[in-house]
Each structure stands twice: as C-alpha cells, then as structure tokens.
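In these records, each integer encodes one residue's backbone shape. Here is one protein:

___
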Amino acid sequence: MSVTLHVDDLPDGLELGSVVAVDTETMGLLPHRDRLCVIQLSAGDGNAHLVQLTGGKAPRLGAVLADPARLKLFHFARFDLAVLRHHLGIDARPLYCTKIASRLVRTYTDRHGLKDLCRELLGIDLSKAEQSSDWGAPALSEAQQRYAAQDVLHLHALKERLDPMLEREGRAALAAACFDFLPTRAALDLAGWADIDVFAHS
C-alpha cells in the first residue's frame, strides 16, 4: 500500500483511471457547519492519494470528480456527495455506492458498514481508531493517513464482489436507479430535507 499526501490539489498529470474510489473526511457530520478537510482517491491499484484542503477550490481534483466519463466509487455516497457539492460545488457523477449495493443484496444482515463489508466479502479487518480524530489539524498523523487511505483502497474489490450478487438477485437495474438518484437525495439533504421522507404518505 502506498499513501501520498497532497496539499490543496492533485498534481498535474496524475493518472487515476476510469474508475476512481472516493471518500471524504470532515470536521463533523453537518455539511453546512463542518469543514471538508480531506478527500481520498484510489484507482484500485493499491495506491491512495489524499488531498488535504486548506483553502481554494482544487481545480484538478474537481475535474477528476466531475468527469462524466469516470465512474466514482463511494461507500455512503449520500454524505460525500452533499459535502462535495456544498464545499466545492462538485456534482460527482456517474457514481456507485457500495453501501446501497450492500443493502440491496445482503438482506440477511443489518450490518452494512465498510468494516463489515471488508470483513465478510474480502476477509480484511479494518481499524476505525482514527474515525473521530481531528481532520482539520494542520498536519495529519501517519495513523490518520493510513485510516483515510483504507477507506478507498478496497472499494474496487467490493464492487467486484457486489456486482455479481446484484445480478444474481435481479437487482442490478434497481441499484443503478438508486445510484442515479443519489445526487438528488444529497441535494434534498442540503436543502433541509435530510430527516424528512418526501415520499412518505404523511
């Protein structure tokens, strides 16, 4: 595993392929209040690129995330999409969410966290020790960098395991429709409907 830390933007010429795993680290769970601190990317090659944001709009990073020819892989895309849109004005699509895929096919469990998926589908145990650490610190510790990297390093492999399950259960089209709707769900969250089901009867 290789982890490279960049400050404020990606370097020129960095090749991340046509499918890139993406995650974010923030100061909290409220996009309007909490600062976006780190964005993690991986091409599924065992290498992770972390962009620590200290200001500005990160145009090269934005171009990667907004590229309509590049599939973005997330785990719990709903949050990451809202954060990217609110802080950077980025609409990251097309996309794939491993949590949504898991909920559609792993109906035998209610455990759909990244740690649970990696343990069951890949035989990998992830540490979550740094999950609640200070991501706004001027310098990220090596432990923080390793934690941030692991959130993207396994998403390609998870997709490879989840796709056949979606096909087997006849839910691939349903998953695709859910992925297409996620940017709208994130927009609803940002607009004030985060805790309201607009499709509910009452």
